TrEMBL record, chain A:
SUPFAM superfamilies: P-loop containing nucleoside triphosphate hydrolases
Organism: Rhodobacter aestuarii
Family the entry assigns: Belongs to the ABC transporter superfamily. Ycf16 family.
InterPro entries, per database record: AAA+_ATPase, ABC_transporter-like_ATP-bd, ABC_transporter-like_CS, FeS-cluster_ATPase_SufC, P-loop_NTPase
UniProt-listed NCBIfam families: sufC (TIGR01978)
Protein name: Fe-S cluster assembly ATP-binding protein
Domain of life: Bacteria
Keywords on record: ATP-binding, Nucleotide-binding
Domain ABC transporter residues, every copy: 2-248
One term of GO molecular function: ATP binding
UniProtKB/TrEMBL annotation, chain B:
Domain of life: Bacteria
Record-level GO BP terms: iron-sulfur cluster assembly
Pfam families assigned: SUFBD_core (PF01458)
UniProt-recorded name of the protein: Fe-S cluster assembly protein SufD
PANTHER family attached to this UniProt entry: PROTEIN ABCI7, CHLOROPLASTIC (PTHR43575:SF1)
Domain SUF system FeS cluster assembly SufBD core intervals: 168-390
SUPFAM superfamilies: Stabilizer of iron transporter SufD
Length: 256, 420
């Protein structure tokens, strides 16, 4: 599904190199988690994959299926099936959540040569999805993320995911800023979307999210690359012992 | 040429319409005393009055006919072509709750003393010479007295056909106690347009005004709204401006009764690629009574060298306690060639009031743009959504949902045609 090979990335305006030969493969239908200390390059990787400005890829590739993502505009990557759930979803006053969802969904359908949904069809679909995810209809009527609580913003991300039906979902520290109950609701939403055709890459600092979204594979990332890969037990180990041992094994010290 | 000669020549080039002799003479005297404006006048520093001072209009080609606006609204339609009343295209000037007649064809008793009175009151402390000129010279307009809830909206349609038309229209509206009326205005009206609207809103009356100035590129317009808002009365005005070589929209709102509400808002979009775009909002709100609530919300979207200006003032007179005054002027600059100039002012002579003003200039937010694109929305469409987001506060000042939707559709259409 997603195959990242030897990815090297630096900041566009500075000499700072952030990803230093990253390799990662996420198989179709699997959930992979990436953990790592602050500054390891986790969020940068998610931005680079989804096409945010400000980064320069100096080497490597990132393929979604047969599609080279790095050659595409952000909207083309979305239409190809990539979805990034933001750590801090953006508020857009004056634009209704429904308008936003419909514009996005139809833009993707159009890009893929599919027929756009009519207002009626869309409404039916969004109501059904919202119901499944236990999202209040009131949230659909409000402007995008404006006045939403932290938990509502993250659930809105999950609703977008449910509507857009991506093949590959990257969740960038979805648990940040959430209390335990909100985190559980968000995790339930993600779990409801797990399917044999859909892969997930869950970026997190904490093992606790992985209690709710159970990963097939766990990667430890530091210094711009994957240092170690294992099963769910690797996350538990990190939770218990921290990153020091893993870092030391690769000749690295913990960030100050 | 001496200033007085210039003024005489200006007036001679455009003879005054009939009737209202006293009101016209008083306005002519006011104008003679103040003279035509120049760039040195404080409120004309950013907008060159030369095209309005000129004896005749600079020729302007009429634009393509625009799709009729507010066609779905049940309204009484009144059409002026190059400032000349078009009886055939207009509905009968009659409906329940309202007396309507033409300025050029009647002088009802209620209007005689009121004509020019609000304009005269609005000349202090800032001079508005083109408003005095309008009162003195206006060739036509409507005289509207509303005694109850008007049956439907009055829909003023200004058609521009002649390259050299130079209409001067003056509308006088008297809202009696508890009356309600919505006025809609659309169209460019002429090569050069001078319009004044005086609105006297009596106790508890409600007045709504929605205006679309027409997408014509070459037109020039100077417009004035003078409103007097009595106790518990409501005045609301929204203007959409897209394109236009030169537009100066002035408003003077005088809140004379306790618990009055006045909101005035504007959304302007200009693309210098079509030609010059210069848009000027000059707004003056005076609080002279208790617990008045006023809002000024002005937003401009500018690209390719377009220029927008805002001069807005909240003036709280002594004793106007518990005033709640708000003013915001903002621009969204879509490139580095465009410019926004703003002069927000507060002048407060009462000690128990809440007044705020703010002015910002900014570009499209990169993070929001990336967010939309990451969901599959193409860049230009995403920018369009963010422009609508920027304008939302101004558009929200339109109370009627159907009218609001029509304005939004209008905006979307403009945005779709002006993608970079």
């Amino acid at each position: 599904m997603l195959e990242i090979k030897n990815l090297h990335v630096k900041l566009e305006d500075e000499d700072k190199v952030i990803l230093k030969g990253m390799n990662l493969t996420v198989e179709t239908g699997k959930v992979h988690a990436i953990m790592g200390p602050n500054g390891s390059g986790k969020s940068t990787m998610s931005y680079v994959l989804s096409g945010r400005d400000g980064y320069e890829v100096t080497d490597g590739s990132a393929k979604l299926g047969d599609t080279e993502l790095l050659d595409l505009e952000p909207e083309e990557r979305a239409a190809a099936g990539l979805f990034l759930a933001f750590q801090y979803p953006v508020e857009i006053p004056g634009v209704g959540n429904m308008t936003f969802l419909r514009t996005a969904l139809n833009a993707q359908r159009k890009a893929r040569g599919e027929e756009e949904l009519s207002a009626g069809e869309f409404l039916k679909l969004v109501r059904a999805k919202a119901k499944t995810l236990k999202i209040d209809a009131d949230m659909l009527k409000r402007p995008v993320n404006v006045g939403f609580s932290g938990g509502e913003k993250k659930r809105n991300e999950i609703l977008q995911m449910a509507m857009l039906e991506p093949k590959m979902c990257i969740l960038d520290e979805t648990d940040s800023g959430l209390d335990v109950d909100a985190m559980r609701l968000v995790a339930d939403g993600v779990n409801a979307l797990r399917s044999p055709d859909r892969s997930f890459l869950v970026i997190t600092h904490y093992q606790r999210l992985l209690d709710h979204i159970k990963p097939d594979v766990v990667h430890i990332m530091a210094d711009g690359r994957i240092l170690q890969t294992g099963g769910p037990e690797l996350a538990l180990e990190v939770e218990k012992n921290g990153y020091a041992e893993i870092l030391a094994a690769h000749g690295l010290t913990e960030a100050k | 040429m001496a200033a007085s000669e210039a003024l005489s020549a200006r007036l001679a080039a455009q003879p005054a319409g009939p009737g209202f002799d006293a009101g016209r003479q008083a306005a002519a005297d006011r104008l003679a005393a103040m003279g035509l404006p120049g760039r040195r006048d404080e409120y004309w520093r950013w907008t060159d009055p030369t095209p309005f001072n000129a004896e005749t209009a600079t020729p302007a080609a009429p634009g393509e006919a625009e799709a009729p606006l507010f066609a779905e609204v049940d309204s009484l339609k009144v059409v002026f072509v190059d400032g000349v009343f078009d009886a055939e295209a207009s509905d009968d000037l009659a409906m329940g709750g309202v007396e309507i007649s033409r300025l050029a064809a009647s002088e009802p008793a209620w209007a005689t003393g009121l004509y020019g009175a609000l304009e005269a009151a609005g000349q202090n402390p800032v001079k508005r010479p083109f408003a005095a000129l309008n009162t003195a010279q206006a060739s036509d307009g409507l005289l509207i007295r509303v005694t109850a809830q008007a049956e439907k909206a009055i829909n003023l349609v200004y058609v521009h056909k002649s390259e050299v038309s130079d209409p001067v229209l003056h509308h006088l509206i008297k809202m009696e106690e508890g009356a309600e009326l919505t006025i809609l205005e659309t169209g460019p009206a002429g090569a050069r347009f001078n319009k004044a609207m005086e609105v006297d809103v009596a106790k508890g009356a409600r007045f709504h005004h929605i205006r679309v100035q027409g997408a014509e590129q070459d037109r020039r317009a100077v417009t004035h709204i003078f409103a007097r808002v009595a106790a518990e009365a409501l005045f609301k005005s929204f203007t959409l401006t897209v394109n236009g070589q030169l537009t100066r929209n002035e408003a003077y709102i005088d809140m004379v009764g306790d618990d009055a509400v006045a909101h005035i808002a504007g959304a302007a979009l200009g693309d210098g690629k079509d030609g010059k775009f210069h848009h000027d909002d000059t707004v003056f709100v005076t609080h002279g009574a208790l617990r008045g609530e006023s809002r000024q919300v002005f937003k401009k979207v500018l690209k390719n060298g377009a220029l927008g200006t805002f001069q807005g003032k909240i003036w709280v007179k002594p004793g106007a306690q518990k005033t709640d005054g708000y003013q915001i002027s903002q621009s969204l600059l879509l490139d580095e060639d465009s410019q926004f100039l703003a002069k927000p002012e507060l002048e407060i002579y009462a000690d128990d009031v809440k007044c705020s003003h703010g002015s910002t200039t900014g570009a499209i937010d990169d993070t929001a743009l990336f967010y939309l694109r990451s969901r599959g929305v193409p860049e230009e469409e995403a920018k369009g959504l963010l422009v609508l987001s920027f304008l939302a506060d101004a558009i929200d000042e339109i109370e009627d949902e159907a009218l609001k939707e029509e304005i939004v559709a209008r905006l979307e259409d403009w945005l779709a045609r002006h993608r970079s």
